[in-house]
Write a sequence for this structure.
């Protein structure tokens, strides 16, 4: 199923010759990510854009069954393609758990247990503080160093032409250059309910929707892959947007 931008949109535009493929909120669904890579590869083989950029909007881990495989795929992709990896709130929380294992209890409540298990580490909810410390030590030992480095090096935003890519959204009324990272990773209602323009057209995920929403001021491409089996790919070239 595909969705195109509404005809009365402001028609944000990318620089000539640039095509962007954007994906958000993979959440450990490695099999769906592989399918989207195949779609991108076929599209590029058919049309051969001058410069293609693959932009990933965060939340690579947690909830879904295979966070480890997802990170392997993304890191491998970065070696062959022009890629940009943004930070999601799940990656931010994970790195905070590495610094403070006591936060593992909360992490488990929103999908961290599945990430731990994907690395072959056994874990159950309700661990005591000492058990949490041991668990985090075991997890960091089981994780390839390149996975931890990848998660620590993610960037908060990416801008190209008239488009601003971010995980969750932006706070209305604040210039894009002055946004707080907490809003970029976590914001919902204030952003989602705003009808104002943000300085650039915002492409985001974070809040699941039944199908991609291409609105006048923003595009939400989080279609809840881990729960729905639907991972959305947004293709942008010139002033054309297509969600698949």
């Amino acid at each position: 199923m595909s969705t195109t931008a509404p005809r009365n949109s402001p028609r944000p535009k990318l620089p000539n010759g640039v095509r962007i493929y954007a994906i958000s909120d993979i959440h450990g669904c490695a099999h769906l990510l592989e399918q989207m890579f195949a779609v991108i590869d076929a599209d590029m083989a058919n049309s051969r854009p001058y410069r293609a950029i693959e932009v990933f909007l965060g939340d690579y881990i947690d909830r879904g069954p295979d966070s480890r495989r997802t990170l392997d795929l993304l890191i491998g992709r970065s070696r062959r393609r022009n890629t940009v990896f943004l930070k999601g709130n799940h990656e931010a929380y994970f790195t905070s758990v590495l610094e403070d294992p006591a936060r593992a209890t909360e992490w488990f409540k929103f999908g961290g247990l599945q990430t731990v298990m994907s690395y072959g580490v056994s874990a159950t909810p309700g661990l005591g503080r000492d058990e949490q410390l041991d668990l985090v030590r075991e997890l960091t030992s089981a994780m390839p160093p390149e996975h931890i480095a990848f998660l620590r090096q993610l960037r908060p935003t990416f801008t190209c032409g008239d488009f601003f890519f971010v995980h969750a959204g932006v706070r209305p009324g604040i210039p894009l250059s002055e946004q707080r990272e907490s809003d970029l990773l976590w914001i919902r209602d204030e952003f989602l309910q705003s009808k104002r323009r943000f300085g650039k057209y915002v492409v985001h995920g974070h809040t699941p929707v039944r199908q991609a929403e291409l609105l006048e001021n923003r595009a939400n491409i989080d279609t809840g892959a881990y729960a729905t089996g639907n991972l959305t790919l947004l293709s942008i070239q010139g002033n054309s947007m297509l969600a698949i």
